[in-house]
């Protein structure tokens, strides 16, 4: 397994990325959703030149990075890939000077909610989105606290 980062996803990975996204979310990924995101960061898990997992994010405000979208192909789950991508993302963000990473989750996605909580995220807010879905806002501080 190879883990790679991009600021723009190479065309050679788009078809397999589309398959993973559709397997995870039940709908195709619109390439236009990946455009015009400030400081966009894409992390991909690649096996045999095919995307098997992904994690996308972008800057939402100075010092705050939004971990936006991610998923693991169902046949590759329970192998620690999501955690590996999360740790890689947080390491990159820390090296770039980000203070915090923010993500949203939903109660229906309990596995991801639990992974975030176990990885040091705190629940900081909730809201109802424009589609009427209840969202949970989680944040993790990336800066080490000076003692």
UniProtKB/TrEMBL annotation:
SUPFAM superfamilies: Acyl-CoA N-acyltransferases (Nat). One of its GO terms (molecular function) is acyltransferase activity, transferring groups other than amino-acyl groups. Residues 4-143 form the N-acetyltransferase domain. It comes from the Bacteria. InterPro entries: Acyl_CoA_acyltransferase, GNAT_dom. Gene3D superfamilies: 3.40.630.30. This is N-acetyltransferase domain-containing protein. It comes from Caryophanon tenue. The lineage of its organism: Bacteria, Bacillati, Bacillota, Bacilli, Bacillales.
């Amino acid at each position: 397994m190879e883990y790679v980062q991009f600021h723009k996803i190479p065309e050679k990975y788009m078809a397999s990325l589309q398959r993973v996204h559709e397997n995870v979310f039940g709908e195709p990924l619109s390439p236009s959703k990946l455009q015009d995101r400030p400081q966009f960061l894409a992390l991909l898990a690649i096996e045999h030149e095919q995307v098997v997992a992904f994690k996308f994010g972008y800057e939402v405000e100075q010092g705050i990075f939004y971990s936006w979208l991610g998923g693991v192909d169902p046949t590759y789950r329970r192998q620690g890939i999501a955690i590996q991508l999360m740790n890689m993302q947080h390491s990159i963000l820390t090296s770039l000077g980000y203070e915090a990473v923010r993500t949203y989750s939903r109660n229906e996605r309990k596995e991801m909610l639990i992974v975030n909580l176990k990885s040091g995220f705190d629940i900081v807010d909730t809201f109802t989105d424009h589609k009427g879905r209840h969202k949970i806002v989680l944040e993790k501080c990336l800066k080490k606290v000076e003692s």
